[in-house]
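Reviewer comment 2.1 asked that we show a complete input and output for one of the modelled complexes. We chose the adenosine-5'-diphosphate case, as it is the one discussed in the main text.
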Amino acid sequence: TTKAGTILYLNGVSVSFDGFRAINDLSLVLDKGEMRAIIGPNGAGKTTMMDIITGKTRPDKGEVFFDGNIDLTRHDEPGIANLGIGRKFQKPTVFESHTVEDNIRLSLKGERSVFAALFAKNSVADDRRITEILETVRLDGRRDALAANLSHGQKQWLEIGMLLAQDPKLLLVDEPVAGMTDAETAETARLLKDIAREHSVIVVEHDMHFVRELDVKVTCLHEGSVLAEGPLDHVAADQRVVEVYLGR
Ligand code: ADP
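Response of the prediction step:
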């Protein structure tokens, strides 16, 4: 395998906590522009893998490269965020007392203070970008609503919009549809597919109906390494995957 053309390249990565191998010789390659779904039972190592990619956890062993040849093991967490890796945690964290529009404005990349973002004269370029992001995350009709008044699903979308405002090259999204209605879940699949036209995306998800709607290559983790990889039907038909999910 070559790193050229990849947005993420993990090779032989291991990490232990107090002698317990949470990640065990993990290799995973994501092409530029690819969206990948990561599945696996509780304790499979999904969160720890995301922690390694974002620099929250340092691997004991192995290679972690971003965007070709950037060695992520040489960067700390804020450095990795600056390189263009955005992470959305399961629980939405938005500025509840600000409008939807201002939530995006506050998240636009740059050194502006919160004060400047809210009170400075708006630039036309910023306004255009904000509109574009709000359209992508299906919130252009809720621009002036307070974030606090959005549904749970809409708050998740707003936070995805806030990530987009940072112009990431790679988005890591953790269980985006947990707690969503069926309609919101279906819309989230379409929304992420739109985003994936211009970004590389990793989605960790338990909801297999949602993973099916994403219609992307799936990686199933188990005991800190890759158990199966490929189209969902192929992975779901793998006897080892079945056994792991049934807990046998
Ligand atoms: P998943 O996200 O797939 O549910 P995790 O990455 O959270 O899995 O956990 C993988 C394994 O590593 C689990 O057995 C978990 O208990 C263990 N683990 C994760 N983080 C730590 C930590 N900071 N200290 C000790 N054990 C941990």
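The chain has ten helices and ten strands. We note this here for comparison with the apo prediction described in Section 3.2.
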